[in-house]
Amino acid sequence: VAQWNAEGLRNKKPELQEFLRKNNIDVICIQETHLKDPMRFFMRGYEAFRQDREDRHKGGIITLIKTSIPVAEVHRSGKEELEHLTVKLLLPSGDLLITNCYSPRASVLGLHKVKPEASRHLVVGDFNSHSPTWGYDELDPRGEEVEDWMMENQLVLINQPGDKPTCY
Question: Which helix (H) or strand (E) segment is 72 a member of?
Answer without folding.
Answer: strand 71-76
